Amino acid sequence: MSDNLESFRAEIAEWIAANLPADLKGIPHDEDAICWGGRNWVFKSDAQRDWLERCHGRGLTCPRWPTEYGGGGLSRAQEKVLRDEMVKAGAPSPLESFGIWMLGPALLHFGTDEQKATHLPDITAGKIRWCQGYSEPGAGSDLANVQTRAEDKGDHWLVNGQKIWTSYADKADKIFALVRTDRDAPKHLGISFMLIDMNTPGVTTKPIQLISGASPFCETFFDDVVVPKEGAIVGTQNRGWDVAKYLLTHEREMIGGGGGGLTAGSSLAEMIGTRDALVSEDPIFRAEAMQLEVDAMAFGLTMERYKDMAESGQGVGDASAMLKYYGTELNKRRHEIIMSARGLDALDWDDGAAAPWLRTKANSIEGGTSEVMLDIISKRVLELPSK
Amino acid sequence: MEKLVDTEDEAMLRDAARGFLDNFSPVSAFRKNRDEGRAFDPALWSEMGQMGWAGVLVGEGDGGSDMGHRAAGILCEEMGRTLTASPFISSAVIAATTLRAAGSDHLSSIATGETLYALAVDEGSKFAPSRTAMEARADGNAFRLTGAKAFVAEGSTANRLLVLARTSGSAGDEQGLTLFDIDASRAGIKQDSVETIDYRDFINLSFDNVEATGDDVVGDVDNGLAALAPGLRAGQAALAAELGGLSAGIAAITLGYLKERKQFGRHIGSFQVLQHRAAHLFAEIEVTTSAIAAAGRALDEGSENAALLSSLAKARATQTAKLAVMEGVQMHGGIGMTDEYDAGFFMKRARVGAEWLGDYGHHAAIVAAHRGL
Ligand SMILES: Cc1cc2nc3c(=O)[nH]c(=O)nc-3n(C[C@H](O)[C@H](O)[C@H](O)COP(=O)(O)OP(=O)(O)OC[C@H]3O[C@@H](n4cnc5c(N)ncnc54)[C@H](O)[C@@H]3O)c2cc1C
């Protein structure tokens, strides 16, 4: 490792030590502890707000984004060091959002200077919370079949239609949505990627409860929603599919990364907790757990390798489908093992293992199902014949 | 062994059960129970009593219908298909079989369904009766029970309990355990409710110096595992049948969806990858169904293979149900993840069924040992 990186490591470790509020040190990485930001965000504690503000001040909410938008301007090597040091210090992520994971990368690639200047600083500061309006009742795996339409009314678009499975739509400030702007074109060529404020009259949401008990996703309705044209469309009108796909590769890496061995905060043993000898000596448990550790570690390295490839200019492209497929199936396996290792204890909601276990079942559905990922790999990466 | 197909009587029983459950206990009834915060519907249970289900394993002399274990399995398969919640396995199978083997006189009220039994064995996070630590201290002619029982099925509704406790030796010894049949309201028993993921009635119980007399002992003192063995085997076979039915239930819902949902302008059931997985699931269910039927037959015939086959059935059914619910949710896409849809209920009950009365590892080890491994 270069001297530069070592001095960066020392500097960042010192910064974390000086700035991480004591109350946040080592808090569990569960859903409740996440800071999502946004206009209506109520901080869980002063410490959570302080940590967000301090990290944002240092560009650490989006370490790799350009500094002009509130990012850290770090190289990938520096970002790795930062992540290591954050884990070492027991520091939670200061901010998570669909803006960071999905919209930001798409804007950096396709956005105009004006769109970047308008939206990216609000994302890095945690001021605006975005949601993703892709899926519709008739457009899930067949995403290009979206029917929500935006009619050209001169100075504005008039949007009508329905989205479904919109995660956190009821809590989000804005939505990036796929809308049909040309009904006569072939289905992939009539879609635009549109930014819409959720406060606009005519936008309503209805929460849908998940099997894990929580209610984080919604139906989202658009009834005669007026969207001023200025800056509304990202990329080229009617070519929103390109933006959508680009964004999906980021989303898929992110979801797949949830199953990462090296990147995941806690080890399997930690997640299981102290167990009865009956469990630790059960050959079936041992075989499954051992295989999981082997696969998870190698998968973590694969995530690293793909990021290294991307940085050295070798496009990852459709192979991100592999990361999404593998990582999510791995994560499902992990939680099955945790459930069975915790045995009867885990059958009590209060034990806390069941809700995350049930939630992982969505990992292989959201952001494109495992079947769709395997389809992408076989058709586009392996170029298998379709007839 | 009697054939592994339903006899004429059994086929009639299955049809009748299916008709009754489709009418009075479809999955929507389970949802209603869940929403109203009750583990099962007492009116439904009383109907089951009248139809002879509660007395399925009670002799006719005690007012039972005495239809046998295979019949009990058929009822469980059908109840599993619609996620019917009832104290059937705890009371009509485990308690009835245990007490009948011991010549108890509590059988007639089990047969009517008026007396509800719960089995209080587990103490740790895994099923392991010989690890029982609860103390039953001799006190003159009586015993004093002190300790805790975890995750007792039907624990909050049962009026009687079968409790396994230690009269000698220490946790891990097969000997030195004694089975007691006591009233659930006896002084010193405290209930601690559990919010179970399948919304059924499970509870933790603590015992503080609870009195049991010599009359309360089932079988012999210090030989409780032997007294419990017939009931456990029967319970495991019945639970396997429930899980088999559950697998068939979610598979049927999933097949229906594959034929109905369209993407890319086609039924998703026309995609070969889903066809093959549905076909694979069918194969797994068929293989498990045989083990379930054989376990029921072996129990009815008093075969020396009954324990092996009950474990085989429970091991198979646990894995098949896991596959069926995972495929069920996955093949539905987003809607399968919603509480509004039923698939999640099947997934949660399958997880509870996987643990209760011994998990896959427990039963697979028994099968392997029988096979000389
Ligand atoms: C928890 C959760 C959060 C979500 N959040 C969002 C969000 O924020 N925004 C958003 O826009 N969407 C979101 N989604 C929606 C998600 O992207 C869709 O559910 C997903 O793309 C699948 O679409 P579908 O639900 O319509 O299933 P369908 O497409 O109907 O799929 C049903 C089944 O058919 C299979 N199938 C479909 N086509 C094929 C094929 N060609 N070959 C083989 N099998 C096939 C699927 O793999 C699946 O198993 C979320 C979903 C979940 C579960």
Automatic annotation (TrEMBL), chain A:
* Keywords noted in UniProt: FAD, Flavoprotein, Oxidoreductase
* Acyl-CoA dehydrogenase/oxidase C-terminal domain span: 238-382
User: Can you name one GO molecular function term for this protein?
Assistant: flavin adenine dinucleotide binding
Which intervals hold domain Acyl-CoA dehydrogenase/oxidase N-terminal?
A: 46-127
Any matching Pfam family: Acyl-CoA_dh_M
Would you tell me the Gene Ontology cellular component terms? plasma membrane
Tell me the cofactors it needs: FAD
Task: Answer whether the UniProt record assigns the keyword Flavoprotein to this protein.
Answer: yes
**InterPro entries according to UniProt:** Acyl-CoA_Oxase/DH_mid-dom (IPR006091), Acyl-CoA_Oxase/DH_mid-dom_sf (IPR046373), AcylCo_DH-like_C (IPR036250), AcylCo_DH/oxidase_C (IPR009075), AcylCoA_DH/ox_N (IPR013786), AcylCoA_DH/ox_N_sf (IPR037069), AcylCoA_DH/oxidase_NM_dom_sf (IPR009100), Mycobact_Acyl-CoA_DH (IPR052161)
Can you give the residue ranges of the Acyl-CoA oxidase/dehydrogenase middle domain?
131-225
- Record carries keyword Plastid: no
What's the family? Belongs to the acyl-CoA dehydrogenase family.
Recorded protein name is: Acyl-CoA dehydrogenase family protein
Taxonomy-wise, where does this protein's organism fall, top ranks first? Bacteria, Pseudomonadati, Pseudomonadota, Alphaproteobacteria, Rhodobacterales
UniProtKB/TrEMBL annotation, chain B:
Q: Which domain of life is it from?
A: Bacteria
Cofactor(s) listed: FAD
**Domain named Acyl-CoA dehydrogenase/oxidase N-terminal: residues:** 7-106
Question: Transmembrane residues, as ranges?
Answer: none
SUPFAM superfamilies, sorted? Acyl-CoA dehydrogenase C-terminal domain-like, Acyl-CoA dehydrogenase NM domain-like
Entries under InterPro entries matching the protein: Acyl-CoA_Oxase/DH_mid-dom_sf, AcylCo_DH-like_C, AcylCo_DH/oxidase_C, AcylCoA_DH/ox_N, AcylCoA_DH/ox_N_sf, AcylCoA_DH/oxidase_NM_dom_sf
Q: Any keyword Transferase?
A: no
Question: Domain named Acyl-CoA dehydrogenase/oxidase C-terminal: which ranges?
Answer: 223-369
Give the CDD domains listed for this entry: ACAD
Under Pfam families, the record lists: Acyl-CoA_dh_1, Acyl-CoA_dh_N
| UniProt entry tagged with the keyword Oxidoreductase | yes
Keywords attached to this entry:
FAD, Flavoprotein, Oxidoreductase
Q: Which GO terms describe its molecular function?
A: acyl-CoA dehydrogenase activity; flavin adenine dinucleotide binding
Family, similarity comment? Belongs to the acyl-CoA dehydrogenase family.
User: What is the protein's name according to its record?
Assistant: Acyl-CoA/acyl-ACP dehydrogenase
Organism, per UniProt?
Answer: Rhodalgimonas zhirmunskyi
What taxonomic lineage is listed for the species of origin?
Bacteria, Pseudomonadati, Pseudomonadota, Alphaproteobacteria, Rhodobacterales
